[in-house]
Amino acid sequence: MGTPEFIETLREKVGHELLWLTGVTAVVIREGNRGREVLLVRRTDSGRITPVTGIVDPGEEPAVAAEREVLEEAGVTIAAERLVWVHALPPMQYANRDCVQFLDLLFRCRYLSGDAHPADGENTEAFWVTVDEADRLLGYDHDMRRRVRLALDDEPRARFER
Prior knowledge:
Elements: H1 5-14, E1 19-32, E2 35-43, E3 49-50, E4 52-55, H2 62-74, E5 77-88, E6 92-93, E7 99-113, E8 123-130, H3 131-137, H4 142-152, E9 159-160
C-alpha cells in the first residue's frame, strides 16, 4: 500500500519535519497443526521480519485499523481481541529524510480466515510460525520480540509505559 494519502498531503505542507502518528501492531494468533502460531511478515522496505504494523487513518478506530492492516498486508481476516500495550516509539528518520514518531497501539488478535500471503506489496512474505520460532526469528529485534511476548501473555489489562 505504501504511504497513506493523508501523510503525503501533510508532507506537502511540513516537508520532512517530525510527524506524530498513531500506529498499530497486530499480533495475530491461531491454533494450528503445530500448536499456537503467530503471523509474521517480511517487510519489503527493510527485509525485517515483524508482526503486521500500520498507520491509523484519520477518524479510524485503532482496532479496526489493526484488522484492516492485516487483511491488506497478509490477506488474513482477524478480530482484534484486546489492547495489550500503549507506548511511544523513539523518533526516526526514513531514507528520504522524513521524520516520524509513532504512538504504537499493540493488539492481540484472533485469526478468523484466509491464507497468509503478501497481499499488497508491503511485504515479500507472510507466514505462520510457532511461538518458539517467532521468538527465534525476532531474537535480534528486541522491540518486536517484546511486542509478540506481551501479546501472548494472558495479562487482561493493557500496559502503559511510565
